[in-house]
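USER: My hope is that you can spare some time for a protein that puzzles me. I am handing you a single protein, as its sequence and its fold in token form. Walk me, if you will, through where the backbone shape changes along the chain. The protein I mean follows directly.
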Amino acid sequence: MNQTVTRTLSTVRQFSEKHPAFSQGALRNLIFLADDRKSSKGNMPGNGLSVALVRIGRKVLIDEARFFEWIDQQQEGGK
């Protein structure tokens, strides 16, 4: 039995327009820092946002529900 799960996927621009608390620049920075990366200072851990991103070629879409779950996890980590 196939169940269809409806997900709300948005581009950075669409997400920013729908949720003005997150500017396009801030979202792009979070996306850039989502994955682990190498720098001159060694390996830098990502911020974990990649769980809320869907990449299709160069296009990056944000899964709205997972994004806000990630936000909640950031708050729990700070307690």
